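Lay summary

Proteins are chains of building blocks that fold into shapes. Our project writes down both the chain and a compact code for its shape. Here are two examples, one after the other.
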Amino acid sequence: MDFTLTEEQVLLRATARRLLSAECPPSLVRGHIQDRSLAGPEGLWRHLREWTALGAGPLTDLCLFLEETGAVAAPGPFFATTVLWAPLAGHHAGTGTVALAGANGEWTVNGEPVKTFVLDADLVERVAFVVGTEDRPRLGIGAPGNRREVGMLDPSRRVFEVTVPDDLQTTELDPSTLRELLARAWVALAAEMLGTSRWIFDHSLEYAKHREQFGRPIGSFQALQHKLANMALVHERAWAAVYYAAMTIDAGDPERFRAAHVAKATAGEAARLCGKDGIQIHGGVGFTWEHDLHLFLRRSFGSEHLLGTTDWHYDQLADLVLV
């Protein structure tokens, strides 16, 4: 499989990187956490909503863009709208999110009256409720009315419990359509996690080059060199897994569901190791609120548990392989 990017993809990635580095500094993420409304990222959203059409195109292109949103820990409804809402909403325009998971947090169809892990329900106009059973799912579009915010590790990406409206009108939803949507969402989130892990690695490496102890840069010590080498290795492994999965989904390859589980699991492993070693390399300063590292640690660890944990995806992979 050829992993070489086309000229158009190189331009897409470069454009996304310039846009996001200019429009989403860490100060914007901090502002969004503190004012807890769309007022913080509203200027950013004006730019990002021009790119929501990527959700209807090749997943590889969407992953390239999302990797850059992860590298700035971008807040706002872009992920929920582009990755989750748009494929289900069809002709419904505007911002939205999806309510699917039940009390156990797993993104599987259920008939429970309260949906959990609903992303950014306070920032969107509509919610796509998935109800029914695994073999007969149903879809209804409603307002994010009765909702309760749930405290999570990452305050820049809010999660809610949302009650299914009593008067919700639903239509049948093809189970295969939902399965394809979830596979795309796993890989898309994994791509965003790549960007976040990359930020942690890049800044840990830069810190190790300049921070001195005993008259030497700490990066000259073998123990830290091993940590940085391991961070680079797990990130590269995850990058290959994510874009392989994106390509298999774009091609409709029979291996795409296995590849999607592998992508989310390996991105989770990279998030976990890069976060753990990144904080050790930074030492005490990395724990302070004033340092930007904690913003990316929170996004990284929060995303590892979103749309299925690393262990859950390995369990699903085992079911596909062993059955």
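And here is the second example, written the same way.
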Amino acid sequence: MGRRENEEEIRTFLSILKHEMKLKPDFFVADYKSSWEVAMNKVFPNAQIIRCGFHTVQLINRALTKDLNRFSRKIYGSVIKEIRKFYQTLRREGWKGKNIEIKIKNKDLLQFRAYQHQLEKLFIESDLTRFKSTLNSIYGYLDRFDSEYAEKLKDEIKSRVPRNGLTKKNFVYFLKKLKGAFSLVLRQFRLRLEEKRKEFNTARFLLFKRPERLSTSESTFLDAFLRKYPQFEKYRLISIRISNIYHLPYNRLKESIITGIELWKEAHNDLKAAINTIRKNKTKILNFIKLKNIEHLKNPPKSVRSSPEYQMRKIKKLIRRKYGFRNKNTTKLLLQKELKCPVIC
């Protein structure tokens, strides 16, 4: 990545196009960097600015992604971290009858802490009769929980009881298997969360993909995900709504596409800021409609519709070069060769 061009360099480049090459563009496609817009307004005050479709959609999708990332961290990431810390603390300090303090926020993991606290009672029993009695009371305690993991833990403990029953010789060995039963069920809980996070990450990518670009399998996956988690449909609707500006026929484009966007109360501040930026630039975004209304540009070049990031980098290379602009035709050829799209003047 090279250094960023300042307003003075951009203005010098545009002045070459205007005064030496005698170019008078009707439109400029620009991103959201103020230095480019200021320079364009000074050198070509009559030219209209169209907000780059790629950067407009990117602005919204990045803000939506931050909101989704916050959800992922809260629901999956933080819980998985708590599970790992809980397991490491158990290995280091637990199972010794100590009342270890572990900060846990997730309600499901708090249940595991309660199970472990009950199981610790077995590690301080040296009398076999009392040990058996305590074990039976733990079975009853687990039955009180309406949880699949409580049921799994009970089954795992029972499967590890020796076939000939607990005796003075084997009940100490049984305690080691007890740790394994608890660790196994805790690991199953963590793996389930990781699978859900993986599913969420896949869906997060597909939420911002236009319907016509989804494969059959992707469409099936996304439909199933949205049926399971309908609260994420609103993210997709906003993303598609903004990208529609650059894909719908010009006679279907209206200001309400932008002005009609409504956010939910819990929306991330970055998303609110992105929507405000879109609203402030409404006129420049909808200048795209004016361009599409020009008779000989009813199907404008791809660069106007999407304007990928790499094209801006090529323009910056041209700014640094500042040579080869001998006449208008040469300049257009150079720009078209670099950008691989028509240059409208």
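What can we say about the second shape? The longest helix spans residues 53-93.
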